[in-house]
């Protein structure tokens, strides 16, 4: 009886939505009618404005956000470039010298891996946004250059290379102390492969560091053959 009652309520709500008489839908309509003047004013502003770069978009969206507290465009226009720039800034200052939580090898490797994971997830969201929203952005004259591979994506790949160097340098330090072994070596090579795939290759410094791994006494065979082949 309980499940049937809940099912009937849900079905009633769906019917109400379809018949344009649900409480939620009526409340939205009333709110839109009450704010019609403001909404039309904001629409006109959005249609008239021309942006020179994405920073102007962020400033404009901040203004819109003050005018209209619930603005979907904020998540699409501000969240992505703002979030990515914040993440890139964090990585550019990583690792901080005054962070007491990053004293051990395990802590640094875990944190570095977590930052790489954020880069990978953010890149995935950027690619999805680029495929879904770019036509709308162009129609609204919102700059899209930052979405391209030559834009913020290239900075993300460089940031990934920095994380790789931090990771390997710390692993090498641990191996020099002879407190690491096969497991640490394999873990480091695995991280190298992640970055290699994400960044589309390694720069000279990263390759030199990875080559240094092969000189460690813990290797059974060259663990970087996949890098040399690529």
From TrEMBL:
<dbReference type="GO" id="GO:0072699">
    <property type="term" value="P:protein localization to cortical microtubule cytoskeleton"/>
</dbReference>
<protein>
    <submittedName>
        <fullName>Uncharacterized protein</fullName>
    </submittedName>
</protein>
<dbReference type="InterPro" id="IPR040265">
    <property type="entry name" value="CHUP1/IPGA1-like"/>
</dbReference>
<keyword id="KW-0175">Coiled coil</keyword>
<dbReference type="GO" id="GO:0055028">
    <property type="term" value="C:cortical microtubule"/>
</dbReference>
